[in-house]
């Protein structure tokens, strides 16, 4: 199973330099675990950069994977992860969701570089 964090989804949707890498990662929606917070983050950024219409299409594509809503158990585990790893809220929720579902987290976020269960792809300009 695969979790793509918001930076990876944004790279894919805005057709950034690493879009091809993330395109291959999101190609099979049956392999995707999608934390609901990534839908929020991606919709917000795409709507700001492009349009609400394009943001809705992006969110629709993300929802082809298995969307995982934030529940209380995941919230508590993510808060513990945040404290231990000094991660921001969304990052800790995304990483915790990946770990709870035995998924590999794909990201361009340097905060995750070197962590177990993470495939870090350095952002390119």
Characteristics of this structure?
single chain, 125 residues, alpha/beta, Rossmann fold, five-stranded parallel sheet, 6 helices, 14% strand, globular
Write the layout of secondary structure elements.
Blueprint: E1 2-4, H1 6-13, H2 19-25, E2 32-35, H3 36-49, H4 52-62, E3 66-68, H5 72-85, H6 89-100, E4 104-107, E5 118-120
Parallel strand pairs: 1-2, 1-4, 2-3, 4-5
In the predicted model, the low-confidence regions spanning at least 5 consecutive residues are none
How are the strands ordered across the major sheet? 3-2-1-4-5
The average pLDDT value, as a whole number, equals: 97
- Determine and state the CATH class: Alpha Beta
Distance between the termini: 28 Å
Main beta sheet: 5 strands, parallel
- Beta strand %: 5-15%
CATH H level: which superfamily? 5'-nuclease
Number of strands: 5
CATH T-level topology: Rossmann fold
- What oligomeric state is this? single chain
Globular, elongated, flat, extended or rod-shaped: what is the shape?
globular
Write the H/E string, N to C.
Answer: EHHEHHEHHEE
* Cα-atom radius of gyration: 14 Å
Instruction: Provide the helix percentage.
Output: 40-55%
CATH architecture: 3-Layer(aba) Sandwich
Structural class: alpha/beta
- Number of DSSP helices? 6
The overall number of domains is 1
Word description of this protein:
- The protein has 125 residues and is an alpha/beta fold.
- It has one domain: Rossmann fold.
- The chain is built from 6 helices and 5 strands.
- The chain has helices at residues 6-13, 19-25, 36-49, 52-62, 72-85, 89-100, and strands spanning 2-4, 32-35, 66-68, 104-107, 118-120.
- A 5-stranded parallel sheet has the order 3-2-1-4-5.
- α1 (6-13) crosses α2, α3 packs antiparallel against α4 (52-62) and α5 crosses α6 (89-100).
- The longest helix is centred in the middle third of the chain and has 14 residues, at 36-49.
- The radius of gyration is 14 Å and the shape is globular.
